[in-house]
Amino acid sequence: MLDHVGLPVSDFERSKAFYAAVFAPLGYSLVMEVTPEMTGDGSSAAGFGKGKPDFWIGTHDKQARTHVAVAAADRAAVRAFYEAAIAAGAKDNGPPGLRPHYHENYYGAFVLDPDGHNIEAVCHAPE
After folding, report:
1. Which end of the chain has fewer CB atoms surrounding its CB within 10 Å, N or C?
2. What is the pLDDT of residue 80?
3. Contact, 92 vs 61, CB < 8 A?
């Protein structure tokens, strides 16, 4: 029941392009940008989502690697996410497949983004 997730990034433009590419197969797009002029503290932020920004990247805080799971409509979308992520420069952290140790239909793929955050696409529906 997440409303949104935010990650600090080291290279805003690179990360913005990365997430635009890897989230496109899942139907997510760049919904909102917050400029340094808008924040008043010199930071930038970009929010991705489906109508409402629920996944944010920004330049203001540095923190440890984060894990975020994004819901996929089906297993094909999980595979498309993984392929897009690898093509965009992500590192493999677990290829698409069933993870029955979570539950019988848990189908996920894991990648490390340009800053080392563990990003997952997951589908809980049976094939």
Report:
1. N
2. 98
3. no
10-34 tens-digit pLDDT? 899 999 999 999 999 999 999 999 8
Helices (DSSP H) in the chain: which residue ranges?
12-23, 36-39, 75-87
Residue type for position 5: V
Structure token digits, residue 66: 């984060």
Collapsing DSSP to helix, strand or coil, 13 comes out as: helix
CATH class of this structure's domain 5-123: alpha beta
CB atoms under 10 Å from CB of 68, counted, come to: 14
112 CB neighbour count, 10 Å cutoff: 17
Domain boundaries, the chain: 5-123
Residues 36 and 44 sit within 8 Å (Cβ to Cβ) = yes
pTM for the full predicted model = 0.76
End-to-end CA distance of the chain: 24
Residue 59's pLDDT is 86
